[in-house]
Structure formats: C-alpha cells, structure tokens
C-alpha cells in the first residue's frame, strides 16, 4: 500500500442524475427505521463507467489496498472505503452508515476483487462514528482501524522486509494487513521479486561506478606519466 493523491472529482458527481438519486436516498433514510426495516434502497449511480475510468486513472490501474495490477475488466471493483450501508464494527452493525458517502468522490477507491470481498462492509472505528449525514471533513476525523491510502501515510503504519512480508508498525497497520490479507503468497512473491530487481540494479550501478572510477584512475595515471616525460625533455 502506498499513498495516492486524489484527483479532482469526475463530472458525474455534479450531475442532475446523481443529485436526484441523493435526494431519493436522503428521503429514504429520513424515514423511521421501523418503517423501512423490510425495505432496501437501491444505489445505482455509483456503479458508473465514468467513475470506474476515473478510478483506474487515479490509482494507475492498481488496487488501492494491495497494489496488485488490475488487467481484467471483471477484476475491477469500485470500492467504497466507508460502506454505503450496514457498516460493521467488531460487535455492532450501523445500518445507516455511510449512505451519504456513496455520493462523495473522496470515498471511492479502486480495488481488486480479492480485497473488495475481504473488506465488504467491515469498517470498525474506535469510539463513536460520525453523525449520519455529517460532512466528509468531519467523518474522516473518526478513529478508523484501517489505513486510508489517500489520507494516511501508509509508511507510518506498514513496513516491508526483504522476504516480502508486510510488517505492522501500528495498530492501524496491523488491522489493515489482517483485513486485506497483505501477506498472502502472491503478494509476498511479487515483493521479493521487486526487492531482487532493486538489489540487482544497485549492484549493476556499483559495478558501473567501479568500472568508471578504474578507467578514470588509469587515464589520470597515464596523463601524469606523460606530463613527467615532457618535463624531462
């Protein structure tokens, strides 16, 4: 996991279509829970080609959580960092969190199918969740258990060793590694390959540097010998 700078929101987030659905969702969730207990609001706008293309571009066609390159169209998941409904903690489920963030670009991430299925609607926080409908700037003040690759610096929570293992540096890092299974075999193998590639590049550079210094030294010696001969003449 690496930090990713968020691009400006796509035009769909300012469209009449999205605003219309947001108002409908707002009306649905403003009803008493007893009245809508047997009902479910159907979110449609967020599954959108424009949003998917914007996410692929923003995250450089890699999963935001495990950095696995996404090459097949059916392996791309539009992932909501905070789920659209039924946010699960360790012991409770908050059914109204976080429907309003289904219309907030900064809550959208690109995910591989594996990470999306692992996470589902699991989103634990320490303490209370933000109030329903709270502005995004207030919501992100929650004490989330998971590293947010667009807000947090993942390096402060997760490190990696030469064997390819993800090592927790904080409790948040530990929860994130466990949530997305960041030590699964294919990821460790890819990291080891990356380490070997870097090590080889460093050795090649060191070899080239030594060769250059040796050639330069020989040239300097020859110049010095030539100068001495001229002086003698």
**Approximately what portion of the residues adopt beta-strand conformation?**
5-15%
What is the topology, as strand order, of the major beta sheet?
Answer: 1-4
User: What is the residue-averaged pLDDT?
Assistant: 88
Structural class given helices, strands, pairing?
alpha+beta
Summed up, what is this model?
This protein has helices at 16-29, 49-58, 113-119, 136-139, 171-179, 185-232; strands at 76-80, 87-88, 93-94, 108-112, 125-126, 143-144, 158-160, 166-168.
Q: Could you characterize the architecture of this molecule?
A:
The chain has 233 residues and is an alpha+beta fold. 39% of the residues lie in helices and 10% in strands. It has six helices and eight strands, in the order ααββββαβαβββαα. The strands form four sheets. The chain has a two-stranded antiparallel ribbon. It has a two-stranded antiparallel ribbon with strand order 2-3. The longest helix is centred in the C-terminal third of the chain and has 48 residues. It is elongated, with a radius of gyration of 26 Å. The protein starts with 15 loop residues before the first helix and ends with a helix. The model has no long low-confidence stretch (mean pLDDT 88).
Keywords:
233 residues, alpha+beta, two-stranded antiparallel sheet, two-stranded antiparallel ribbon, 8 strands, 39% helix, 10% strand
Topology:
Layout: H1 16-29, H2 49-58, E1 76-80, E2 87-88, E3 93-94, E4 108-112, H3 113-119, E5 125-126, H4 136-139, E6 143-144, E7 158-160, E8 166-168, H5 171-179, H6 185-232
Antiparallel strand pairs: 1-4, 2-3, 5-6, 7-8
